[in-house]
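User: Some background: our group keeps a shared notebook of sequences we're curious about, and every so often someone picks one and asks for a predicted structure to add to the entry. Today it's my turn. The entry only has the sequence so far, pasted here. Could you supply the structure so I can complete it?
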Amino acid sequence: MADATTTAPSPGKTTYARLFTIPGARAFTLGNLIARFPQGMFSISAVIMISGARDSYALAGAVTATGLVANAVVGPWTARLVDRFGQARIAVPATVISACGSLALLLCVRVGTPDWTLFAAYLASAATPNTGGMSRARWAHLLKDDPDALHTANSFEQAADEFCYMLGPVIAAFLCGSLFPEAGTLVSAVLMVTGVLIFAAQRATEPPAHARTETTRTPLRARGMPPLLIVFLATGSVFGSLEVVTVAFADAQGHKVWAGGILALQAAGSGAAGLVYGALKPTGPAARRHPLLVAAMAVLMTLPLLAAWLTGSLFALGGALLVAGMATAPTMVTGMTLVQERTPAGQLNEGMTLAVTGILGGIACGSATGGAAVEHWGPTAAYTVPVTAAALALLLSLYGYARTSR
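Assistant: Of course. Here's the predicted structure to add to the notebook entry:
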């Protein structure tokens, strides 16, 4: 079997088409996209299913939040096992465990078991492997000698993330509303298992496993990683607060049903910018570009606040979110590039999962802070929360750059 690394795109400008000439790249990407798409479906499917059966959004939110926190805690450990034993050997059983948790939640809701069983069942979803991180690890392995091609691959992966989180909730809501309340959860579980099986079957592109030794150190202790992960935490706060405040703003306008579409504009702007950014050849080291891109995100994040404050129009807000999202993907792409550069060899899945954990933790904090701001200040003034979170991310990125450039 030919070594996939020998057919990587030649140095120079790399297009997306040339990227997928690598043997096995199309197959593992297809499997990963199928497996990743449900990540945008699980939460809203659970909320619709639980709230419809138990008539409690508070219970639905608490159950999904528990799953989110559990995944943030267990995720890095699962990724460590992936690095140590290989993607296929760990991702497949972990996915089956996670799918069983989702199906157990479905059954508990269906037969009317006590509320505590919903939390217990959904805890199994913490085993969900970081499929996006595993895909990025494959690109990093295949393109280790071509940083420009790796930049393009990372940009594609970020755009894929935005695509999944933009369409996932829409598809989930359609399934739950047009078929039956449990349809979103059921379809999500089937897609996740199917995608991971396809992805894991592509062994030729799988990075080699790295056994841990006494000298192996956690990526948390790698130079420059702690401040970078804190930036991911602050960036996640931007996303979490922006979502809650936008839903509240749409509700105040009497158009709560449009909230998902308005938020999709932010993801669309981010995904489009990510694809354009990936087609360009970046200049200068990623460590220097990162604070500049975070600064652009902080500046553009003021647009939703200004649109809500000056116009009070949901349509103007949608346009502002579309433009504001354009700095998100380039910032995330560059941040993930730094994670790849700073993570010790053989621990890439763990390093990128730590970054995702930071984002998830930030989303949880941002959601709580944004919700509290809406309650006390109203939805328009609450847009200061994502602005503040973006400004904090900028200060932290400048601090991290100053620390690592010494």
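Suggested note for the entry: Residues 214-406 form a domain with the Growth Hormone; Chain: A; fold (CATH 1.20.1250.20). The chain has two domains: 22-211, 214-406.
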